[in-house]
Predict the structure.
Amino acid sequence: MGAPARPNDLYSEKTDPMTDQPPVSYAGPQRVVSGVQPSGALHLGNYLGALVKFARLQHQIDTFIFVADMHAVTVWQDPALLAGQTREIAAAYLAAGLDPSKATIFPQSAVTAHAELGWIFQCVARLGWLDRMTQFKEKSGKHKERSSVGLYTYPVLQAADILVYKATQVPVGDDQKQHLELTRDIAAKFNHDFDRPGFFPLPEAMTEGPGARIMSLRDGSAKMSKSDPSDNSRINLTDDADTIAQKIRKARTDPEPLPETLEELKARPEADNLVGVYGALADMTKAQVLAEFGGQGFGAFKPALADLAVAKLGPVSDAMRRYLADPAEIDRILGAGAERARAAAAPTLDEVRKIVGFWR
Ligand code: AQP
């Protein structure tokens, strides 16, 4: 119907994927958006890769942090448990230092603008783009046909989660980089198709930092994950001191002492991971950790790591328990956050409806 020809094979980092030029600059304010799914107990990877960054950023930029319950239901969730799991994630946010008077904390499903913009974006995104998403391939495994459609299209909803607030920065772990590229492509294609340069920002993934990719304690080549069947593969935020120490003691390692240089560390994924975890918890670089422990065996390093992990995570899990003892207060915080988030999302959705040409 006379639509302009549009490229449908876009991938780029710092350029507008539609033009391959620097993006038309977005003139709106800086904003941070991110979220975590209430699909199981949070682990050290979620804490270091996401929660710690959220708490830091709230002091610098307008920050929106949601509990991603709409993403969680892309795989089966027991309806009797889901609201409780949502409160648990909210409690973890608060325990990690998020302050509801600074950051807007809310359940994703309470702001219907995410789903509405998500639909528009389903019509903007191309099938070929989604076909490349490696996380879907990993999560659907051998049972692709039996996966929900939502699991396949969830990165499109994620783009709406971000762009409905016109967020410019998204703090996430390394595993989310590809989804952020998709968000940039959707933003660029929307701006291009509707001839509105700079309407949506092309948000940046903030993946830097020592906790961006924490690996399984059982396999240095797999990321630490909620859905790993082995509980020993991860440290949960709710683990007690003995459990943390035991999991670190049992963590897979090689028989060699810790190396002196980063170069040697690279070839030893399990050692590299434990050194990285130590560094992230102690706010040290890997080189600094090696300067302290290089040449020592795991018999000395693992107890030091266990003590550090208990000292850092113990107060977080204590605080989580305190917040969870008062679910009414969590609900109040989530309700107030949802109201703020709805107000922030409404103008974007209003403009999008106009731009797309919907009846109003
Ligand atoms: N191992 C990890 N290292 C660093 N960051 C991580 N994240 C997840 N795993 C690691 C980051 O945590 C945030 C929330 O993730 P999510 O709730 O969307 O879950 P996920 O990315 O699917 O990862 P999970 O928690 O391990 O769950 P499953 O088992 O379902 O894959 C994101 O910012 C993520 O990058």
Notes: The CA atoms of residues 18 and 188 lie 6 Å apart. The first helix runs from residue 44 to 57. Strands lie at 31-36, 62-67, 104-107, 169-171, 204-206. Residues 231-324 form a domain with the Tyrosyl-Transfer RNA Synthetase fold (CATH 1.10.240.10).
